[in-house]
């Protein structure tokens, strides 16, 4: 999921889709945690190009990770807790891929910043990442 500084999701994707409402709730809760972490870091964050926030919080079923860009766009990734093969550096790498793909969308002259993301290339990139971790 990714969200601009105003905290409304521009893109949410979940697999399997039957838990989609639960994921929406988790993502909204996570955005508040991201804001708290950003506030706690204060000026230290300003000097960084992007910021991997790491594990935001674990639940019984999921691990929730966060990332924020220098323009305050937030990315949240929810991973099944049973997936122990996924390491921190792999999560960080996935966020970088998301950030790069998001940057490509922003460079599209037909994309209006703040609109929901409807991009086949972004969908394909997210799908390939999800297939790697499932």
Automatic annotation (TrEMBL):
Q: In which compartments does the protein localize?
A: Cytoplasm, Perinuclear region; Endoplasmic reticulum; Golgi apparatus
Q: What is any Pfam family matched here?
A: Sedlin_N
Q: Which GO terms describe its biological process?
A: endoplasmic reticulum to Golgi vesicle-mediated transport
**Protease: is it a keyword of this entry?**
no
* One cellular component (GO) term of this entry: endoplasmic reticulum
Q: Where are the transmembrane segments?
A: none
Which SUPFAM superfamilies does this UniProt record tie to the protein? SNARE-like (SSF64356)
Keyword terms, alphabetized: Cytoplasm, Endoplasmic reticulum, ER-Golgi transport, Golgi apparatus, Transport
Q: Which CDD domains match?
A: TRAPPC2L
Keyword Heme attributed: no
What PANTHER family has UniProt attached to this entry?
TRAFFICKING PROTEIN PARTICLE COMPLEX SUBUNIT 2
Family note:
Belongs to the TRAPP small subunits family. Sedlin subfamily.
Q: What is this protein called?
A: Trafficking protein particle complex subunit 2-like protein
In its UniProt entry, the species of origin is given as: Crypturellus undulatus
């Amino acid at each position: 999921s990714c969200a601009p500084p105003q905290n409304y999701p521009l893109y949410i994707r979940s697999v399997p889709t039957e838990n989609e409402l639960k994921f929406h709730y988790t993502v909204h809760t996570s955005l508040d945690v991201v804001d708290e972490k950003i506030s706690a870091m204060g000026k230290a964050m300003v000097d960084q190009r992007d910021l991997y926030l790491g594990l935001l919080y674990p639940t019984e079923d999921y691990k929730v990770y966060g990332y924020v860009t220098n323009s305050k766009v937030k990315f949240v990734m929810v991973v099944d807790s049973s997936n122990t093969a996924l390491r921190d550096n792999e999560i960080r790498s996935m966020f970088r891929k998301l950030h790069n793909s998001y940057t490509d969308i922003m460079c599209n002259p037909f994309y209006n910043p703040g609109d929901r993301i409807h991009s086949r290339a972004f969908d394909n990139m997210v799908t390939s990442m999800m297939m790697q971790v499932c």
